C-alpha cells in the first residue's frame, strides 16, 4: 500500500464535494482495496461512504423493493421482504464471496464497479431495475455499458436500486473456485412484460440473451432451452474456461435457474 488521505463522508453532499476535489469513493472495498494494493488504483484521497446510513436499508414502495446503495450483501440475503418477494435476489446475495465479503460489500459498490463477473449486475438487468443516483433515475438497460463501464457521470453516486417484483425469478452461478466470482452466472426473471435473461461472467460485461428470452417466453421450462444455440464467438476465454465451455455453461445455468424459479430445485 502507499500513503493516502482518508476522509469519512458525513453527508451525501460532502461525499460528492470530496469526489469532485479528486477523492475516490469507498463503499465495501472488495475491488478497490485489492486494486490499491496492486497499485492499479492510486487515489490521493479515499472517501469512505460507510457513514451515509441513510443510503442503507430495504423497503417496499409501489409494489417494488427499494434497496439502498450502501446495503450490505448479507442484509439483502437475509431480509424477510427480499426473501419473500424476490427469493432469487436473496439467494444471489447469499452466494457472493465469503462471509467477510458479504459483511462489507454493498449493492451500490458492486453495480458501480460493474466487474464483468460480478453477480448483482445480472439481477439488476434481468429484473429491469431502476438505478437511482444523486442526479437521476437510470434504467437497467441503459446503466451497464461494458467492461467496468456504466452510465454514471463524474460526481454521480448510486443512492438506491428499485427492483420490480417478478412472477418468478432465480439465479444460478458456476463459481470460479478461487475468487467465487461467476465463471458464468444466469439470472432468469419471468415478468408480466415477458422473460428477461441476464448473463454475467461470460463476456466483457453483463448482457441479455434474446434467444433464451424468446423460447422461455413461449415455454418457461428447462426443456425449452435445449434448442437454443449460444454463439461462443463473443464470449470470454481465459485460463479458467474457453468461450465454448462458457457457452455450454450458459445453457446449463439457464436451465438450473428456470428449475429453481419453478421450485423444482437445481
What would you note in describing this structure?
A five-stranded antiparallel β-sheet has the order 4-5-8-6-7. It has helices at 12-20, 32-37, 73-78, 80-85, 87-94, 99-104, 107-113, 120-126, 140-143, 210-218, 243-261, and strands at residues 5-8, 23-26, 45-48, 58-61, 64-68, 130-133, 137-139, 158-164, 168-175, 182-191, 194-200, 207-208. 33% of the residues lie in helices and 23% in strands. By secondary structure, it is α+β, with helices and mostly antiparallel strands. Helix 2 (32-37) links the parallel strand 2 and strand 3. The protein is globular, with a radius of gyration of 18 Å. The N and C termini lie far apart (43 Å). Among the domains are: 1-51, Uridine Diphospho-n-acetylenolpyruvylglucosamine Reductase, domain 2 (2-Layer Sandwich), CATH 3.30.43.10; 168-261, CO dehydrogenase flavoprotein, C-terminal domain (Enolase-like, domain 1).
Give the C-level CATH assignment of the domain at 168-261.
Alpha Beta
- Here the CATH topology of the domain at 168-261 equals Enolase-like, domain 1
Shape: globular
Helix and strand content put the structural class at alpha+beta
**CATH homologous superfamily grouping of the domain at 168-261:** CO dehydrogenase flavoprotein, C-terminal domain
Extract low-pLDDT stretches.
none
Q: Record the strand order, biggest sheet.
A: 4-5-8-6-7
Determine the fraction of residues in helical runs and give it as a percent range: 25-40%
The counted number of beta strands is 12
